[in-house]
Amino acid sequence: MKITPEIISKHGIKPEEYKKIIYLIGKEPNMLELGIFSAMWNEHCSYKSSKKYLKKLPTKNKKVIQGPGENAGVIDIGDNDALVFKIESHNHPSYIEPYQGAATGVGGILRDIFTMGARPIATLNSIHFGSHEHPKTKNLLNGVVLGIGGYGNCMGIPNVGGEVKFDHSYNENILVNAMAVGLVKKNKIFYSKAKGIDKPVIYVGSKTGRDGIHGASMASVEFDENAEDKKPTVQVGDPFTEKLLLEACLELMKDDSIISIQDMGAAGLISSSVEMASKGNLGIEINLDKIPCREEKMTPYEMMLSESQERMLLILNSGKEENAKKIFNKWDLDFSIIGKTTNSKNLVINFNNKEVANLPLNSLSADAPIYDRKWKKNIISKKLSLPKNIRSLKISDCLKKILMSPNNSDKSWVWEQYDHTVMGDTIQKPGGDAAVVRIHGTNKGVAITVDSSAHYCLANPVIGGKQVVCEAWRNLISVGSDPIAITNCLNFGNPEKDKIMGQFVETIDGISQACTYLDFPVVSGNVSFYNETQKKPISPTPTIGGVGLIKNLDNMITKNLKEIGSYVLVVGKTSGHVYQSEFFREVMGIRHGPAPEINLFNEKNNGLAIQTLISKKFVNSVHDISSGGILLTLTEMCISGQIGAKIKFPRNDISPHEYLFGEDQSRYLIEINEKNKNKVDNILDKNGIHYEMIGRTQKDSLDLDEEFSIKISDLNELNTLWFKNYFMEN
Amino acid sequence: MKSSIIVFPGSNCDRDIAVALEKFQIKNQMIWHDETILPKSDLVILPGGFSYGDYLRTGCIASKSRIINDVIEHAKKGGLILGICNGFQILIETGLLPGVLLRNKKLRFVSKNVFLKVINLNNKFCLNYKKKNTIELPIAHIGGNYFANNKLLQSLEDKNLIAFKYCDKKGNINKNSNPNGSSNNIAGILNNEKNILGMMPHPERLIDPLLSGEDGSIMFESLLKSQL
After folding, report:
1. How far apart are CA A499 and CA A451, in angstroms?
2. Could you say which of B109, B142, B211 has the minimum Cβ distance to residue A424?
3. What are the strands of the beta sheet with A346-351, ordered from one edge?
């Protein structure tokens, strides 16, 4: 077949990129070779627009064993244990086919974890949908939740938390970001770098079918009106096979058979073989006649570009093939020796005794294009004066409206469809500030959270980037953990537009500032661009997955109020920033205005003080004050503890609405026993932290001065109503 | 006490139950489904999970595994068998317990803690629930909707073969406390001889105060006591 400009363009390759290909390989590529370039050079696999800026992120501290560049990041948690974790997007496929898109998103991230030798111990996810009134939202939400549950439940890995958000900017570009965490012994971590010449290259797992061909390229362009025609590019998952693959791989990893291992994710066989060989500075030869195929008469092009799931590529030590084969046979999985490592530094593909592709590996990875895209600074909204009618709104009505809104509703309808207690180590279930999972067989725990704040990022990408890192850090602090590192999933529109690129550049700047200041490095992640349909981009949505360590689970703390008659304190300064708040969006319908400022010094200072209070056991409960402000935060503490509170305004320099619903950052709400009041005051005073007592806990109802008194059971009812009504499950 | 956990491809609660058995010092062995000989055991456990990916019908393919012949022999000799979740589904597919398990009424997976009334306290699994017969355990399944015809239901009730029923915190058994649509709120049943128990809730997941409760422990304590 002759390669025409049209074919080149269909492969997502720009004319100037095609010229570069010819220059690099010294010939016109054949169809298969063009397909390989398309798989390796697309945005999803090559990071060509983002690389320049990703380098600015801090990626190291004393606990980081492996930063970005491997299948997942690895951190040291002491006692020869390490945690492996990563977050990844599966946005485009999930919009086209929500069940399979979301399911294979979970499958893909789990493979990233066990490829490194770790047993996955938890998954989380951050999912964003369009407005609940958009005709597609219900079906997409339903499909994504079923897909995530369908895959994770079958794998038997607890789904311990996450977030579900709605905003019209995702109407035609939903976000499905899946995170997984695994546990491994420090001396048993596996990497993807190939070593040694003439070593057998092994294919294990499912057979290769015609699904997911060009999946990664599909995720590297905007959607047009025919997005749904792209269904064949979506992979189909089989969690049962993945469970077998997990057990088989971990069984083989017990000894020293494996030199290196890489899962076949985006761009399947191509990217896995290229990555392993390039990292090892070797060549690789693959014989396609040996590929286990699901369908007949598959062409080399289809085999190489398929994104069929549940497959792995291994490079074994010579002589270990028989032993490995026995294990994979026991688990009823395919096992095939498909090639070998060479010293050619080329990728060579043979089929029917003919060489069908031969490309220098450097041309696919090291020499792939890197762009320094044009970007422009975002226009930042100035400080505005408050609308006049704000004081006339009844506070109880505002609270009810926020509680009943889709974004602030109780999400148990979602997470009760995910098995969150399997493996018997889930100490804090979904719904808290962070999930806590016990390190199996110890009294240590890992705290995990995923967070995003697209509204803030849209209003001000630098602040938004800082805020979302701080939010994750704060959530980890709030359960009594020591925050260690993060993984990020950066969801943006089309980077070829200077405005979008500007959002990206500035968000990274914010993330980088906060991570550096908090010593909270990025160890893994991915970038998802082109979340844009017919010129409408999503709001910039960096999703941060944070991980912290609780050295002794006796020091873990939850957000639910514990006892009647204790004091409730606001820790951190409240100045009443209501722009970009839930109150403004849900109650006033105002979406413009500046994002709340972040002061990194205060963030750290307040957080460390909370840590001290927790470790000295001076506090009964802690909840960070985030969206919805003080009043929503307190309401959540009341509902989860089934205990009420009576509060007053401690101040009269700002209006009650600003005080109660403002979203000033770096604040916590804490419950303390009367007997600890002086000790707590001392610690906060000593650290120069602003705090205010706002009231005391009581039985059954939440009371505000003489304004209102609402029963906790009624608040709970309101909070759980929305999902049930939406899916008519009352 | 000696136990054997049968591990099928797709089992995923096998480790959890092994941890629980170890905690109660029950000597356990993991037995791969493809084995033909069941080692001498007082208790055989069919764990939760998705044996064979739930393909064909939950528990169906596992019920034809090689080891199952020996499991049936073990049952005939009066040996104890505990099937949890997918294990319960397998017990039904092997015919060791009557009835069927349909998909949950709302056709959704349900993972949450539920309250259970221990109905039959007179069997080796539940002896110690005499001290506390309204308990809390997690469920996590999509196919736990127990169904039987009226005749069978009546017989289960008459012979007192229902081990657990879903109830509310106060012990009331009603429609609101039924998480999956099971007939008569059934969460677990016994065979005629009461040496086989099949249940949807997971006792192995609540054996530790850190995991929000220890009501699961009572079952393991009962089993130990029954061997004295």
Report:
1. 24
2. B211
3. A258-263, A311-316, A200-205, A334-342, A283-287, A346-351, A354-360
Within 8 A by CB and 6+ apart from A448, the residues are A85, A122, A124, A160, A161, A179, A181, A434, A435, A436, A437, A545, A546, A547, A548
Q: pLDDT (tens digit, 9 = 90+) per residue, B52-105? A: 999 999 999 999 999 999 999 999 999 999 999 999 999 999 999 999 999 999
pLDDT score for A1? 74
Q: Is A90 part of the annotated catalytic residue set?
A: yes
Domain B2-226 sits in CATH at 3.40.50.880
Residues A622 and A637: their CA atoms lie apart, in Å, by: 8
- Residues of chain B contacting A550 with CB distance shorter than 8 Å: none
The residue type found at A115 is T
The token pair at A719 is 């909070």
Residue B13 to chain A, least CA–CA distance (Å)? 7
- As given in the structure block, the two tokens for residue A189 are 């971590």
In the stretch 324-363 of chain A, residues with CB closer than 8 A to chain B read 331-332
Those residues with Cβ within 8 angstroms of residue A287's Cβ, 6 or more apart along the chain or in another chain: A338, A339, A350, A351
Instruction: Tell me how far CA of residue B20 lies from CA of A3, A498, B15, in angstroms.
Output: 63, 58, 9
**What pTM value is reported for the model?**
0.96
Q: How far apart are CA A79 and CA B198, in angstroms?
A: 40
Collect all residues of chain B within an 8 Å Cβ-Cβ radius of residue A422. Answer: 12-13, 16, 48, 140, 205
Query: For residue A496, what are its two tokens?
Result: 């070829």
User: What pLDDT was estimated at residue A602?
Assistant: 98
Q: Are A64 and A501 in contact (CB under 8 A)?
A: no
DSSP lists the bridge partners of residue B116 as B135, B166
What's the distance, CA A517 to chain centroid? 22
Q: How many CA atoms lie within 13 A of A287 on its CB side?
A: 13
Give yes or no for a contact between A455 and A461, defined as CB atoms under 8 angstroms apart. Answer: no
Q: For chain B, give the mean pLDDT.
A: 97
Residue B86: closest CA among B115, B45, B123? B45
Nearest alpha carbon to residue A175 among A126, A112, A119, A247: A126
Measured between CB atoms, which of A332, A412, A422 is closest to B9?
Answer: A332
CB atoms within 10 A of CB B147: 14
- Strand A567-571 and strand A541-550: the pairing is unpaired
Show residues of chain A in contact with B110, CB under 8 Å.
416-417
**Residue (of A626, A474, A442, A451) closest to A550 by Cα position:** A442
Question: Quick one: DSSP state of residue A213?
Answer: T
The DSSP output letter for A382 is P
Scanning B139-158 for CB atoms below 8 A from A yields 140, 142
Instruction: With CA atoms as reference, report the closest residue to A408 among A629, A568, A578, A577.
Output: A629
- Euclidean distance between CA atoms B44 and B87, whole angstroms: 11
Looking at residue A216, its pLDDT comes to 64
Q: What is the mean pLDDT of residues B209-219?
A: 92
- pLDDT, position A267: 82
Q: What are the pLDDT digits (tens) for A217-236?
A: 666 677 777 766 766 777 88
Low-confidence ranges of chain A (pLDDT < 70): 215-220, 227-228, 230-231, 730
pLDDT, tens only, B14-56: 999 999 999 999 999 999 999 999 999 999 999 999 999 999 9
**Backbone φ and ψ of A90, nearest 5°:** -140, 55
